[in-house]
Amino acid sequence: MNKTVVMATNNADKLREAREILSPLGIEVLSQRDTGIKVEPVEDGTTFAENSEIKARAVFEALGGKYPVMADDSGIVVDALGGRPGVYSARYAPSGEECTKLLSEMEGIPDEKRTARFVCNITFIDTEGKVFHAEGKVEGRVAHEMRGENGFVYDHIFLYGDKTTAELSPEEKNSISHRGAAMRALYKHLEERYGD
Coil, helix or strand for 173? Predict the structure, then answer.
């Protein structure tokens, strides 16, 4: 059985995390670039699951089903904003201005109503075209100001306990992260398929 999986991304951090989590199964994770595939599908789904499947399916079809493909979609869901930015997290504001915009929208909202969560959905499509979804979430709150040096984008305003996820060490963050949780759920699925 082929133990190569293509991840529908060229993001080095996502690839590194996927490789670390899946390596005990002997799975080699390739990027789109590694396979020479250049597709940029329109992510017009209304859920994280729909968008991750759009990305995975585009690469799967470009590869002609030669390899299994995985893709993820993630973002921050804020209750006081009716779930926004949600699937639009990456396009919510110009790059570098996301936290500033979210904090301004949350101005005056008390702590008890600042609940939010990071959500990640991973779609895995096997060479037979069967689709599996894995989802991970981490619950927290929106801070009143940006804090921390680690992580990226919304990590600087997402409180997990009394620290933002940008104030956690990489090890601490990986142990609770939404993408890590989704990857571990995918691992369990693949262990049944690829495990000895």
Answer: helix
CA R_g for the chain: 17
N- to C-terminal Cα separation, the chain:
11
Work out the burial of residue 40: count CB atoms within 10 Å of its CB; fewer than 13 is exposed, 13-18 middle, 19 or more buried: exposed
Given 13, 72, 73, 155, the catalytic residue? 73
pLDDT digits (tens, 9 = 90+) for 71-113: 999 999 999 999 999 999 999 999 999 999 999 999 999 999 9
Would you call 79 a catalytic residue per the annotation?
Answer: no
* 176 Cβ neighbours under 8 A, 6+ residues apart: 138, 160, 165, 168
> Residues 138-159: pLDDT tens digits?
999 999 999 999 888 999 999 9
**pLDDT at residue 1 greater than cutoff 60:** no
The pTM score is: 0.90
Distance CA 128, CA 8 (A): 17
Identify whether the C-beta of residue 137 lies closer than 8 Å to the C-beta of residue 163: no
Helix (H) or strand (E) holding 135: strand 131-142
Alpha-carbon dihedral of residues 33, 39, 45, 47, nearest 10 degrees? -10
